[in-house]
Amino acid sequence: MNSAGIAIRSLGPVAATEITGIDLAQPLDEQTFAEIETAFNQSGVIAIRDQKITPAQQIAFSQRFGEIEVNYNSGKYGLPEHPEIYRISNITKDQKPIGSRRTGENWHSDMIYSARPPRATMPHAIEVPELHGLMLGDTAFANTSAAYDALPESMKLHIDGMEGIFDFASRTRSEAPDAATVKRYPPVQHPIARTHPFTGRKCLYMNRDDCTGIAGMPREDAEALIVALSDHVIKPEFVYRHKWREGDVVIWDNCTMQHKAILDYDLPQRRLMHRMTIAGSVPV
Questions:
Q1: Domain extents in the chain
Q2: Of 121, 105, 112, 205, nearest to 167 (Cα)?
Q3: Residue 259 to residue 122: CA distance in whole angstroms
Q4: In what order do the strands lie in the sheet with 188-191?
Q5: For residues 72 and 184, what is the distance between their CA atoms, to the nearest angstrom?
Q6: Which of 80, 59, 77 lies closest to 68, judged by CA?
Q7: Domain at 7-130+241-255+264-278: CATH architecture
Q8: Is the peptide bond before 268 cis (omega within 30 degrees of 0)?
Q9: Cα 68 to chain center, whole Å?
Q10: What is the pairing mode between strands 45-48 and 17-20?
Q11: pLDDT for 251-283, tens place per residue?
Q12: pTM to 2 decimals?
């Protein structure tokens, strides 16, 4: 039974749960948070609507899920008083961007190139672009668990035990990282068929941009497999597209989900997200 006042409903067959009746500006009791976390682990994406919270309150809620991960570029786009919060925005101030504009326009899992990728990502929608009532700037999500489940058994056996090679330095970015950041994230290897740390489900953990090879496999064979599996993950039957509303707090699981920003807006349509990242565990 849900806690008093909370309503939880599915937003689609493969991903996403909407939660209403919660005020994140107020402390959450253990039972209420347990219901939120269970919904998160089961669906991979949760949307908590109509939130009017301060940066400090967003940080406090994020910490219920785990340790905060500070973005490598927070010195440039982090909130000055709360560098844990990273701004995603096309807004400028004094002719300079206040946030990262072209972020996540290709399918990816956040920081998959790190030795301990984040458990979750949590933006709070401060401003959502709209054009004559049409909301823009959606985020698409692809369910990597559903994609794995749909693989032929022969493919599951073929990739069992394989490790992808993930290289931060090779990724295409709108802004090139500095040498210190590249050194901070040397190439790593993660299982292609990753086991979710909370549910035990298998997930396809790789994508075109970040997976630069497969350990022990010739380059051409690895590239063909990476392309085939990456295209499989983002088939329409595994995808949910979230239409943002101002006040949304959306949390996604970076093991269960890949995501992609839909950049279908520009000034004078304004977009501002306050994004938090929650640290995760070493993939197995």
A1: 7-130+241-255+264-278, 143-233
A2: 112
A3: 13
A4: 188-191, 163-166, 211-214
A5: 9
A6: 59
A7: 4-Layer Sandwich (3.60)
A8: yes
A9: 14
A10: parallel
A11: 999 999 999 999 999 999 999 999 999 999 999
A12: 0.92
User: Which residues, in sequence order, are CB contacts of 6 under 8 Å at separation 6+?
Assistant: 19, 20, 21, 22, 32, 35
CA 267 to centroid of chain Cα atoms: 25
Whether the CB-CB separation of 274 and 55 falls below 8 Å is answered with: yes
Q: Which residues make beta-bridge pairs with 134?
A: 131
Residue keyed to tokens 């994609």: 147
Buried b (16+ CB within 10 A) or exposed e, 81-95: ebebbbbbbbeeeee
pLDDT per position as a tens digit, 203-233 = 999 999 899 999 999 999 999 999 999 999 9
Hey, what amino acid is at 88? I
What is the DSSP pairing of strand 92-93 with strand 86-89? unpaired
Alpha-carbon distances, residue 51 vs 85, 189, 250, 253 (angstroms): 16, 38, 10, 20
